[in-house]
Amino acid sequence: MQYFPFVVVVWILCVGLYGVVTSRHLVHQIICLIVVQSSTYVLLLGVGYLTGAVAPYFYDVPVHTPAVDPVVQALALTDVVVEAAVTALLLSFAIQAHKRFGTLDPQELASLKG
Amino acid sequence: MDQLLALAVVVPLLSAAAISAAGPLLSARRRLLDATAIGVAASVAVMLMIIMFRTVGGDQVYWFAGFRPSRGIAIGVDFEVGPLSAGLASLGAVLVTAAMTFSWRYFERVATYFHTLMLIFLAGIVGFCLTGDIFDMFVWFEVMGVAAYALTAYRPEERGPIQGALNFAITNSVGAYLSLSGIGLIYGRTGALNMAQIGEYVDRHPADRLVVVAFLLIISGLLIKSAIVPFHFWLADAHAVAPTPVCVLFSGVMVELGLYGIARVYWSMFGQALGHRAAISHVFLALGVLTAVVGALFCFRERHIKRMLAFSTISHAGIFLTGIALLTPLGLAGTAVYVAGHGLVKAALFLCTGIILHRLGSVNETWLHGRGRPLRVTGVVFTLAGLGLADLPPFATFLGKGFIDTSAAAHGVSWTMAVFIVCGILTGGAVLRVAGGVFYGLGDAPSEDPGMAKAADEEKSETDSGKQRTPLTMIIPPAVLVVMALVMGLLTPFGPAVQAAAIRFEDQAGYNATVLAGAHITHPVAIAAAEGAGITAADVLTGAGSTVGALILAFLALYWRRLPLLRRGYEPGAGLTAPLRRFQSGVVNDYVTWIVLGLACVGGVLAFIVQ
Question: Domain residues for A94?
């Protein structure tokens, strides 16, 4: 088992969370959220890359062809779709916030509420 | 007729797609649109109830596209359905039906995407409850989440909804990604995504740190969704601003789904492998009790009725977590019954609040004082629902709490009962105070101050207010829901059936055999019969006492200005909650900080226990 990808995962996760916690700009904050999510891609790919393991399905290729686990690729793709939906929605909220209230600062937005 | 299981998600998803596609045609025919959505939601509710009754004798498994397990290895994606999962899903479907019926007259104008999102939300609820695959669970969680974020910001022209939706979406997304990381880790270890398969694998191997970390990560998203302190901050922001019919679903079923997920993950995958039952039980008991108390204190302080109900939901989520944390069949059964009763009663309260908003144009308790007198029927329904929330026998809430109390006493933690009584008195008292003040004009009229009129104006744009009469489509749903909660508590076979279902839910070996070997298990032999399960006279007394306590507290809160001991200007409970209120800042950065801190604490304790 190689540990390097997982060190990278933890690093990306921490950087992303730090960004979400400290950000004063909604667009920046949403991008930091994407960074958090990117850690899951690296994790899934790291999990899928195993030396000497067998891929679960073989179809019309010889059984000992080098391959990576297709399941994690499917998971990563699903993950990308989910991210696209969430990010698009969040950015549309940010646009609304900017249009209607003229601010993209989460703290100002909260204080507006009174 | 296994296909019924699949239809329960396919029907709402396809209808949502069809409504969305036919949007331009349907937007001019509002009533056709409404009727279609109500019809779909009601048919899903019927399907799920049929499934629920059918699974009473044993769980059912449906393998999509017929990919059945081969030699004990799951290769496809399955739905694994027992009475508890089907029951929670049908509660969701009933609430969606009620909310859609309520919206018939509630919104003057409504966009087709409201119906689309509600049906997608319903599909998410159903899929999340029925699935037997951990990655699927994440996907349904996100389907539900995205629909919920969009519904929260249904009125994007106001800052409350936008801010609430942003807080909701960012905190819950962080949780979802942590869950996904946990799923990735457990897949890397076991090579499986099917929950039974994972459970079987981690059972056969010694639990190491990776399993603990994966467990913590997977439940972190669910803890956030179920608004457990300190992950609860988003909930009050989102509930206060979402349209009232949507709040019904948030409080009545979405929070409970998070807890269902925790129970499902624990009992189908990690329960056996983690071991250390007593210690893990205590960690979650502590979280549950903390949540129950914090939620109840905030609830009593609140004057904004929707926020008050939201905090009461947090308090109840704490009670549910406590019930699950007992790790006993009776505790789980009690939680299931309580969730059903609470969901119905809380939905009725939110719908009545919607009627108040529709008729009087405000949800501010102080401003509304005495103005609700013309709303007689609504007042009666609201009061009944408030009594149900205070666990008055024979509401289902009372039955559920009785089970949890019995189980807690049998396991040496009977002090939780005292906590529940206090929380029940505080949350029930707050709701009954609203009922007495708004609908019956009891208590002293509030002194007029300029801030009040402004606060009263907050929710104006949601519905065209100032209507002269309450439409039948708005008052019938809450009334029916309250009656359902009453009837459920009176049905004698209901309690034992739920207990039998809970015993099966906690039987991991049985779950594995059902999914992987196609076994049909009616009653697991390994698990003892439920503890002395009957409701005793003492339980009835506690329930009645708690309700009387709530009534007394409500009267005290209404008439406290006349009490000789209290000086003028004193606000009851202010000293207790003022320091806590500062944490509820509305800034999402703070909320995520709390999530990280909370997870670090829970994770540290779990790692220490399992080591």
Answer: 4-113
